[in-house]
């Protein structure tokens, strides 16, 4: 025992025992508060509708039931189509976003590029000022005619200035100029240098911005609200949003049930809604561990902006 | 090594997911509807609130066939969900996008902004029959600064708030509904139900519940500036200060809340009490002449419901604008658009098809302009409900409705009183800040007061105090000035 203590005290980088316990508890609490709502949602999705109406939300419901998921199964066509749109937009969008972002960032990270200052500012300005919703709507619909197409979900987020800055910093710090020079001496062109030399060195950064982009695409519903008309182009998050908005509308107009019976009937029950939340969250939560390793290192490296 | 392993797993998973979903279904094309006027046909674009019905293509094919014969154009209806409609139409109007007809939203403010075409001269010309058939209340209610901006849907021109109960329960306990005049009269019934049927929510109340009798609000019942219909009709009041009936009802509601008739979380809850479900005993519903008593409610609930009035029938601005169609000021086919509106409002066949679906499938035509709904009829799978489609007096009438009910309907429309506020439109330019402040204060209190969660003894004075600080006196004064001018002109 005594010997052990001595060994521990050598560990100068660690915490003392007491503070270690304290921080562990603290972090555990924080982690629990993050996970708890999601667990609660899962529990609600497994509660029977009757017990929801009478007892409200309960941590351990009076009556369990799979009805929420059973109902979801009946609307599987709509759900699968929405899931397909979301997955397609997320994967394709992330590819597009990462390609554009990393190439742009690489260009402005190279000191040999003459206009790098201009293009850095060019990206930065859009981060600070934006034209607003109506002008972008006009550009999307009247000039580009992208209303009600899948592109309306992908292109508005194809380039993100924040990610550009992160990547630019990342390239600067983790890819030494000497390596790029040596590649040049060996006869590689710009594109080859980028793909074969720089990219493999930048994997943590790429993984980080991929995660940012994928999350943004997965959670996006606002573009769908603005631009999507057709039912078969509705992504999953917007489908949820629509249901929520319909519920709000119904509560505001509680005394119009007869007139609004068409709307009321189309709203899934509480448990079903929670089941939808579960379904829309799980895939992205499940993909997180794949990114996480790079994410940690990527975030710290990219965090310093010069 | 580890890295490449994970990468393989990752790409493998993505590919699998992609392929799976691709194989399962998958179409990236929007509806063919958006290719408007592709084959050189003229199309009228209409924005409508609601969800697109599954039978849209079939039904619209039929309607468009007829429409093409009559007017030479096709109608393309684009749906926007109930909850998103305001937001989306706002963007569409502010971007100046080209559309022809829309179900109006925030009618008064959009009309004042010039988003809609002035129909004062066009309507009597291109939608003559519809215009003439409309109850005068609709013309008055949809006129702003002397210009007509919308065609109301001739339906429930008056409305009254009702207490609604499932008939089975009323019969079971032998309640006498004829004694019910006010909220307070309900107490013995509610008490019995609370005791004998504890699994039911006694009063189906959520944050949207609004009580109060015979008060017509200048904007809506979320903004406490109104006229007392039973009192001095020329005076603008804050009902929370000056209406005794409202105070009385709020006190009753609080008593009910204390007794447990109202769900504990009513002030914040948005729980749905479906008409169909046997989960509630009493609720508030709005009814009008074309509901034919409780027929429509009963049809929607698929079980018998019974209602007694809480308020007097009133033809108000709100009713005139509950469903009205506007023509966009950006439309290049304003005349044609009006002709389309006219056709929907005058052709019983098109109208009934829009409201009930295809003839022979979801309904059957009988003699004497009567019809019968088949069991295939589904309220979710129609172009839109009757109240928001077209002239309800032109619809084929359900065979369940007796001639007597029709006579009653017409008599009740004649008898119903016009709200003194009908046709009054407030110019808010001088009191914009105050209006925002008052709305914020109201949001804090209204749900709590109306559901009985807050004790009116304490909360109402507090509420009034805050309203004063938010500038309600200035608003009432301004509204009164404009209202006096309006009344003068009316005479």
UniProtKB/TrEMBL annotation, chain A:
Entry annotated with the keyword Transport: yes
Cellular compartments annotated: Cell membrane
Gene3D superfamilies attached to this UniProt entry: MetI-like
Pfam entry (one): BPD_transp_1
GO cellular component terms listed in the entry, alphabetical order: plasma membrane
Transmembrane keyword on record: yes
GO BP of this protein: transmembrane transport
Domain ABC transmembrane type-1 as annotated: residue spans: 83-288
Membrane topology (UniProt): Multi-pass membrane protein
CDD domains reported in the protein's UniProt record: TM_PBP2 (cd06261)
PANTHER family with a match to the protein in the record: ABC TRANSPORTER PERMEASE PROTEIN MG189-RELATED-RELATED, POLYGALACTURONAN_RHAMNOGALACTURONAN TRANSPORT SYSTEM PERMEASE PROTEIN YTCP
Family: Belongs to the binding-protein-dependent transport system permease family.
Protein name according to UniProt: Carbohydrate ABC transporter permease
Native source organism of the sequence: Vagococcus humatus
TrEMBL record, chain B:
Pfam families per the UniProt record, alphabetical: DUF3502, SBP_bac_1
Residues of the DUF3502 domain: 420-488
Highest rank taxon of the organism: Bacteria
InterPro entries attached to this UniProt entry: Bact_solute-bd_prot1, DUF3502, SBP
Protein name: Sugar ABC transporter substrate-binding protein
Source organism (scientific name): Vagococcus humatus
């Amino acid at each position: 025992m005594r010997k052990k203590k001595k060994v521990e005290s050598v560990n100068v980088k660690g915490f003392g025992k007491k503070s270690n316990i304290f921080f562990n508890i603290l972090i555990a609490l924080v982690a629990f508060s993050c996970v708890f709502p999601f667990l609660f949602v899962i529990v609600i999705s497994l509660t029977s509708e009757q017990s929801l109406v009478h007892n409200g939300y309960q941590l351990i419901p009076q009556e369990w039931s799979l009805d929420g998921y059973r109902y979801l199964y009946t609307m599987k066509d709509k759900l699968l189509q929405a899931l397909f749109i979301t997955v397609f937009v997320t994967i394709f969008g992330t590819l597009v976003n990462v390609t554009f972002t990393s190439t742009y960032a690489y260009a402005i990270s190279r000191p040999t590029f003459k206009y790098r200052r201009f293009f850095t500012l060019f990206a930065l300005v859009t981060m600070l000022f934006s034209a607003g919703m109506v002008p972008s709507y006009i550009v999307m619909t009247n000039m580009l005619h992208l209303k009600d197409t899948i592109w309306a979900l992908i292109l508005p987020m194809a380039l993100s200035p924040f990610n550009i800055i992160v990547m630019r910093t990342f390239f600067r710090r983790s890819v030494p100029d000497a390596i790029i020079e040596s590649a040049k001496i060996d006869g590689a062109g710009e594109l080859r240098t980028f793909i074969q030399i720089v990219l493999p060195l930048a994997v943590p950064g790429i993984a980080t911005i991929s995660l940012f982009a994928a999350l943004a695409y997965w959670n996006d519903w606002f573009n769908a609200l603005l631009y999507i008309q057709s039912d078969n182009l509705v992504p999953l998050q917007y489908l949820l949003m629509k249901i929520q908005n319909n519920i709000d509308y119904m509560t505001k107009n509680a005394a119009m049930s007869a007139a609004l019976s068409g709307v009321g009937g189309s709203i899934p029950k509480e448990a079903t809604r929670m089941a939808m939340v579960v379904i829309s969250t799980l895939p992205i939560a499940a993909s997180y561990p794949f990114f996480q390793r790079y994410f940690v290192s990527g975030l710290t490296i990219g965090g310093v902006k010069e | 090594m580890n890295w490449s392993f994970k990468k393989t797993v990752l790409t493998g998973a993505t590919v699998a997911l992609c392929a799976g979903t691709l194989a399962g279904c998958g179409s990236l094309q929007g509806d063919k509807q958006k290719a408007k006027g592709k084959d050189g046909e003229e199309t009228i674009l209409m924005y409508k609130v609601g969800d697109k019905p599954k039978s849209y293509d079939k039904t619209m094919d039929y309607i468009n066939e007829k429409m093409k014969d009559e007017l030479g154009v096709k109608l393309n209806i684009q749906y926007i969900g109930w909850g998103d409609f305001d937001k989306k139409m706002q963007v569409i109007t502010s971007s100046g996008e080209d559309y022809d007809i829309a179900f109006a939203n925030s009618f008064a403010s959009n009309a004042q902004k010039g988003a809609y075409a002035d129909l004062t001269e066009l309507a009597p010309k291109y939608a003559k029959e519809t215009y003439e058939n409309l109850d005068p209340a609709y013309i008055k209610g949809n006129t702003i600064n002397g210009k007509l901006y919308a065609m109301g849907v001739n339906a429930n021109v008056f409305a009254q708030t009702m207490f609604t109960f499932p008939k089975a329960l009323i019969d079971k306990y032998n309640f006498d509904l004829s004694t019910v005049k006010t909220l307070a009269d309900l107490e013995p019934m509610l008490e019995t139900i609370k005791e004998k049927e504890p699994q039911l929510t006694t009063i189906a109340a959520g944050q949207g519940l609004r009580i109060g009798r015979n008060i017509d609000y200048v904007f809506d019942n979320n903004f406490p500036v109104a006229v007392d219909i039973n009192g001095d009709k020329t005076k603008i009041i804050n009902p929370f200060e000056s209406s005794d009936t409202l105070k009385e009802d709020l006190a009753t509601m609080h008593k009910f809340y204390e007794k447990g008739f109202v769900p504990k979380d009513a002030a914040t809850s948005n729980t749905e009490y479906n008409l169909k479900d046997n989960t509630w005993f009493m609720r508030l519903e709005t009814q009008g002449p074309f509901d034919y008593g409780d027929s429509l409610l009963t049809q929607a609930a698929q079980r018998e419901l019974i209602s007694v009035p809480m308020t007097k029938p009133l033809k108000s601005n709100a009713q005139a604008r509950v469903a009205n169609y506007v023509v966009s000021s950006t439309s290049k086919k304003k005349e044609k658009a009006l002709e389309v509106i006219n056709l929907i409002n005058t052709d019983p066949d098109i109208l009934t098809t829009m409201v009930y679906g295809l003839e022979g499938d979801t309904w059957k035509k009988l003699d004497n302009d009567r019809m019968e709904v088949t069991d295939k009829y589904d309220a979710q799978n129609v172009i839109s409900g009757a109240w928001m489609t077209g002239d309800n007096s032109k619809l084929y009438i359900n065979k369940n409705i007796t001639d007597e009910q029709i006579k009653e309907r017409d008599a009740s429309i004649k008898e119903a009183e016009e709200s003194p506020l009908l046709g009054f439109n407030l110019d808010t330019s001088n009191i914009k800040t105050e209006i925002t402040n008052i709305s914020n204060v109201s949001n804090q209190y209204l749900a709590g007061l109306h559901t009985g969660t807050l004790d009116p003894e304490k909360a109402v004075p507090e509420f009034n105090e805050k309203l004063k600080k938010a500038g309600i006196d200035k608003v009432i004064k301004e509204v009164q000035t404009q209202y006096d001018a309006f009344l003068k002109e009316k005479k």
